[in-house]
Design goal:
The complex is a heterodimer of chains A (148) and B (119). Chain A is of the alpha+beta class. Chain A is built from four helices and six strands, in the order αβααβββββα. The two termini of chain A are 23 Å apart. Chain B has 119 residues and is an alpha+beta fold. The chains are: A alpha+beta (148), B alpha+beta (119). At the A-B interface, strand 1, helix 2, helix 3, strand 2 and strand 3 of A face strand 1, helix 1, helix 2, strand 2 and strand 3 of B. Strand 2 of chain A pairs parallel with strand 1 of chain B, so a sheet runs across the interface.
Chain lengths: 148, 119
């Protein structure tokens, strides 16, 4: 399948030719340059416009609000659980003595809170599956090239 | 003050809170909105792309090489194929906010600054 058929950004925007396949993308080293493009807010707004029919400005406002809500929740120590996506949880880390690797000086690292994200089984499975398929396709293609 | 396991906010809580901030909007629309956003992030991860939400954090996938693992119960060796796993790292703003929220009520507050920020 070609990148354009998949509704992705054309490869030539990142220096590859437009005809590269998924196999090129996941298979060879460096071949996935267009795939490793970041998903930007604009991409999200575009999907929202298509699927929900909200204009960009509205999308922008809602996305900010949504992540403010999530952040506020995390600050209260709540776990944020999004079905079919994953869980964000706050972890407390105790104060400890660390060392600056460059100067070898000991520094006190204060107690802190960090966020962990555990992806849902479904999301992990989707990622694993997509990757497997791409690898298989790349292998098949490589074999076909060798045969004749 | 950040408390451990205070409670859980789930998808419907998030939609409800979003609806409270937008009383004029249809909650069905907001529900679809939340779903589309998380689906967009998921799809990007499936496509091996990175997702960055400014102020919140970024998502990407890490490669795990193949390995031989052991079934801890039977001691049997099991081959685990290479795979990609999703990862998340909180953004600077979120990390800073957590330090402030955690520091506000705690007695032991050596430094409110996150050394990783280099500030």
């Amino acid at each position: 399948m070609k990148c354009l058929e998949m509704g992705l950004r054309p490869c030539n925007t990142t220096g590859l030719t437009n005809g590269c396949t998924l196999g090129d993308v996941f298979g060879g080293k460096g071949g996935y340059s267009f795939m490793s493009n970041s998903l930007t807010r604009k991409d999200i707004y575009e999907k929202v416009r298509e699927q929900v029919g909200l204009p960009y400005a509205e999308s922008h406002r809602l996305l900010d609000q949504m992540f403010v809500i999530v952040r506020e929740g995390l600050k209260r120590g709540e776990d944020i659980k999004i079905a079919r996506f994953g869980v964000f949880a706050v972890h407390h880390k105790k104060a400890r003595i660390g060392r600056n690797p460059k100067t070898k000086r000991e520094v006190m690292i204060s107690e802190r809170y960090s966020i962990s994200f555990r992806a849902s089984g479904l999301l992990k499975e989707r990622i694993r599956h997509a990757n497997q398929q791409a690898t298989q396709r790349a292998n098949q293609q490589a074999n076909r090239k060798q045969e004749p | 003050m950040v408390r451990k396991n205070a409670s859980t906010m789930n998808r419907s809580d998030l939609i409800r809170l979003l609806a409270e901030k937008n009383p004029r909007m249809d909650s069905k629309t907001l529900e679809r909105y939340v779903d589309v956003v998380f689906e967009a992030i998921s799809e990007a991860l499936v496509e091996n792309r990175r997702v960055e939400i400014r102020g919140f954090g970024s998502f990407w996938t890490k490669e795990r090489s193949e390995r031989i693992s052991r079934n801890p119960r039977s001691g049997e060796s099991v081959f685990v194929a290479a795979k990609r796993v999703p990862a998340f790292r909180p953004g600077r703003q979120l990390r800073r906010e957590l330090v402030e929220a955690g520091g506000a009520g705690s007695r032991r507050r050596a430094s409110a600054l996150d050394p990783r920020d280099g500030t």
